[in-house]
Amino acid sequence: xxxxxQDRADTQEPLAIICGGGSLPLAxxxxxxxxxxxxxxxxxxxFGDAAAVGRYPHHWVGLGQFGRMCRLAHAEGCxxxxxxxxxxxxxxxxxxxxxxxxxxxxxVARLYRGGDDRLLSGIGRxxxxxxxxxxxxxxxxxxxxxxxxxxxxxxxxxxxxxxxxTGLAVLAAMGxxxxxxxxxxxxxxxxxxxxxxxxxxMLLRVADLRKAGRIxxxxxxxxxxxxxxxxxxxxxxxxxxxxxxxxxxxxxxxAGLAVVAGSTIVxxxxxxxxxxxxxxxxxxxxxxxxxx
Length: 292
What we know:
Elements: E1 15-19, H1 24-34, E2 39-43, H2 50-53, H3 66-75, E3 80-84, H4 99-102, H5 105-111, H6 116-129, E4 133-135, H7 137-140, E5 149-150, H8 158-174, E6 182-186, E7 189-193, H9 199-211, E8 223-226, E9 240-241, H10 243-251, E10 256-260, E11 265-266, H11 269-278, E12 282-286
Parallel strand pairs: 1-2, 1-3, 3-4, 8-10, 9-11, 10-12
Antiparallel strand pairs: 5-12, 6-7, 6-8
């Protein structure tokens, strides 16, 4: 087991980035490389972007190939590991385990009896027991975090600020159940809560409800709110937004989106701000809410 007091800023060793889907893994890799640190990507089959990972040294791994990943990472000299990117949680019978991972199956099965944060934190402990040091993407690339304040020109009015406060309260209440990180609120009315479908699909659901006449509020009423879960292990699965999030907010007919600054990852922030301005919505980083 590694000494947790060891210097986490050692940039002489290469960084292993386990890559799910989306643009965030490459954004993190680019940020780390700009700091002069070598990165080695471990894209997960079925999720990693084959066209993008070729820019860096990389090894493809399957979800059940923990043994292969360990061998390759140790061979590359990697001790620090970051998990980043989109994954769809598979059922255990869909995973093809290598021998080393198969030996861990009873433990992994127990971790599956809970939410995503429980599962990811447990997997993180397994990595640490095998000589790795788990870091959050924000620790190696702090510039990927949303800053406090407006990301575009528009600002939320008083009704939107009230909806943001309601959304934060809803997410805080859901935290102990390890449910989701996003909610849509309009005039104090909770229209949607994120579960297994993810934020983009939740926003599409809101758009469909509007088309079906189940949402009667005019276009431009309502807010998407995103925040980390209460007590979440922030090395894994921080809330994230990108241009696609803005597209979803516009399609859903909302006034804008609010995310917790310093605890939310943003992909392509310049494009996010420009897209928000074109769509006439607001995008804002809000302070971390005070917990009782």
